[in-house]
Amino acid sequence: EVNLVESGGGLVQPGGSLRLSCVASGVSFSRYKSSMSWVRQAPGKGREWVASLFAGDDTITYKDSVKGRFTISRDNAENTLYLQMNGLKADDTAVYYCEVGRWRGQGTQVTVSS
């Protein structure tokens, strides 16, 4: 069974930065060859895709509104997926979830407010 645990969320002022982590167990990132993603859900809204990394060839894609501000990466040795978020805006406020294949973590809250 795959277990994903996100961390790194919190309260940050507009323009600030956070780095989210997603530690995986039950799957080896060094052997995993499919998609890894971050998605988010803002209050009162549906879940939306933010960024993906395709482990087979390291192809990376981003939602347009986060391009140039967010960076998705992974550490195979630590079995961890990251999301570096810079230049945060109020619209980025949401619960952020990592997804590895069909599995999803419990989420971490990101609040951007002055």
Task: Describe this structure as you would to a colleague.
The protein is mostly beta strands. It is built from no helices and 11 strands. It has strands at 3-7, 10-12, 18-25, 35-41, 47-54, 59-62, 70-75, 80-85, 94-100, 103-104, 108-112. The strands form 2 sheets. Strands 2, 4, 5, 6, 9, 10 and 11 form a 7-stranded mixed sheet that branches. A hairpin with a 5-residue loop joins strand 4 and strand 5 (47-54). The chain is globular and about 40 Å long. The protein starts with a strand and ends with a strand. The mean pLDDT is 96.
- Given helix and strand content, the structural type is mainly beta
- Proportion of residues in extended strands: over 45%
What is the subunit organization of this protein? single chain
Elements, N to C (H/E): EEEEEEEEEEE
Number of helices: 0
Number of DSSP strand runs: 11
Instruction: Tell me roughly what share of residues is in helical segments.
Output: under 10%
Rg on CA atoms, Å: 13 Å
Largest sheet: 7 strands, mixed
Mean pLDDT: 96
Taking pLDDT < 50 over at least 5 consecutive residues as the criterion, the unreliable ranges are none
Measured distance between first and last alpha carbons: 40 Å
Shape: globular
